[in-house]
Design a protein that fits this description.
The chain is mainly alpha-helical. The protein has helices at residues 13-32, 39-65, 78-96, 99-122, 128-145, 155-162, 170-188, 190-200, 202-207, 212-238, 250-259, 274-291, 295-319, and strands at 164-165, 168-169.
Length: 326
C-alpha cells in the first residue's frame, strides 16, 4: 500500500459498457412494448427506481467495504428494515405527536439495526450473511406483531415519495443527490479511500493503521440508515402503510449493485454503476407486471441475468485486475 492510489475516470470503460447495455435493453423492450415510453410509465419506473436506489447505495457500501475476514459483505436485512420503518413511523408518530421527531427516530432505528449487524459481524465474528439474515428474520417477526396504527402521513413525506418535478420523481432526485454525496465521500475523503483499501488488501490496510472493525461496522450502520430513509420514501409513496409486503428490495438491491459492476469480493465498483442497475431492475418489474409473469419466473430471470453479467466481469477481471477508486 506504499503505492499512490490512482483515481480512475468517473465513467470507465466498465461503467460505460453497463450504461450502453441497459440502454439497448430498454430500447429493445420499448420496441416490443411501445407503452413503455409513455410518460406515466416512465415516471412510475423512475419513482420505484429512486426508492430502490437509496437502499442500493447502502448495499453498495456494504459489498464494497463490509467484508469480514473471509466472508464477503452483504446486508440481507435492508428490505425488512424498510418495511419495519413504514410501520414504526405510524406508532412513533402517534406516541410523540411530532412528525419531525418520528422521522428522526425512524432514521435512528435504521442506524440501530445497522449497528446491531455490525457488532454481530465484527465483535461476534459472525458471517455477514448469517448475521444480516438473522436480523432480517427477527425484523419480519416484529413487523408481524405490530398492528397498523391509523395516522396522517406528513406532507413532506408524501412530497418526497409521490411528487415529481417534470417527468422526474422526487424519489429519483433524492437517489441522485445521495449518489453524488456518496461518490464524493468514497473518492475524495479519507473514509472512502480507507474503505476501498480495506476491501482491496485488508492486511496492508491494517498495517497502515486502518481500524478494520470500525470501518466494517460503519458500512452496516450507513446501510441501515439508508434502508430506513428508503422506508420513509416508500411510506410517502404508499400514503397508507400496509401489512402486505413482498420484499422486492433486498435481492433487487444486491442485483442492482452487481449489475452496476461492483464485484462481490469488494475493492472494485462505482456508485455511478448503480443508476443503470436500479433502473433496469425496475423496468424488469414493469415487464413482469405487464405480462403477468409469476414471481418465481421473475426470480429465475433475475438470477440468470446476474449470473451472466457477473460472469462477464469475472472473466474480464482475470485478464486485468487493478485496484482503482472509481
Amino acid at each position: 500500500m506504499s503505492k499512490k492510489l490512482k483515481l480512475s475516470p468517473i465513467f470507465s470503460e466498465r461503467i460505460t459498457m453497463i450504461y450502453v447495455s441497459v440502454f439497448l435493453f430498454i430500447l429493445a423492450a420499448g420496441m416490443l412494448i411501445p407503452t413503455v415510453f409513455m410518460p406515466s410509465n416512465i415516471i412510475g419506473v423512475l419513482r420505484q427506481a429512486g426508492i430502490l436506489g437509496v437502499v442500493a447505495l447502502g448495499q453498495f457500501l456494504v459489498i464494497m467495504g463490509g467484508a469480514w475476514k473471509k466472508d464477503v459483505g452483504i446486508d440481507l436485512s435492508v428490505g425488512s428494515t424498510l418495511f419495519l420503518t413504514t410501520l414504526a413511523f405510524c406508532h412513533i408518530n402517534k406516541l410523540v405527536q411530532s412528525d419531525i421527531v418520528a422521522t428522526i427516530l425512524c432514521l435512528l432505528l435504521g442506524v440501530l439495526i445497522g449497528l446491531i449487524n455490525g457488532i454481530m459481524i465484527t465483535r461476534g465474528n459472525i458471517s455477514p450473511f448469517i448475521a444480516t439474515l438473522a436480523t432480517s428474520l427477527s425484523l419480519q417477526g416484529i413487523t408481524w406483531m405490530i398492528s397498523i396504527t391509523p395516522v396522517e402521513i406528513p406532507g413532506y413525506l408524501i412530497f418526497l415519495g409521490s411528487e415529481r418535478i417534470g417527468l422526474v420523481p422526487i424519489t429519483f432526485i433524492c437517489f441522485l443527490i445521495l449518489s453524488i454525496i456518496l461518490w464524493v465521500l468514497m473518492r475524495y475523503s479519507t473514509y472512502g479511500i480507507r474503505v476501498y483499501a480495506k476491501s482491496s488488501n485488508p492486511r496492508a490496510a491494517q498495517l497502515l493503521g486502518v481500524d478494520l472493525k470500525l470501518y466494517t461496522l460503519s458500512t452496516y450502520v450507513i446501510s441501515g440508515l439508508l434502508a430506513a430513509f428508503g422506508g420513509l420514501l416508500y411510506l410517502g409513496f404508499l400514503v397508507h402503510p400496509s401489512m402486505t409486503f413482498t420484499d422486492i428490495f433486498t435481492f433487487d438491491s444486491i442485483a442492482a449493485v452487481l449489475i452496476g459492476g461492483t464485484e462481490f469480493v469488494g475493492g472494485i465498483g462505482s456508485v455511478f454503476g448503480l443508476l443503470p442497475g436500479v433502473v433496469l431492475m425496475r423496468f424488469i418489474n414493469y415487464f413482469i407486471l405487464f405480462f403477468n409473469v409469476p414471481d418465481a419466473t421473475r426470480r429465475i430471470m433475475t438470477g440468470l441475468m446476474i449470473f451472466s453479467i457477473v460472469t462477464i466481469f469475472v472473466l474480464q477481471s482475470k485478464r486485468k485486475r487493478k485496484f482503482k477508486i472509481v
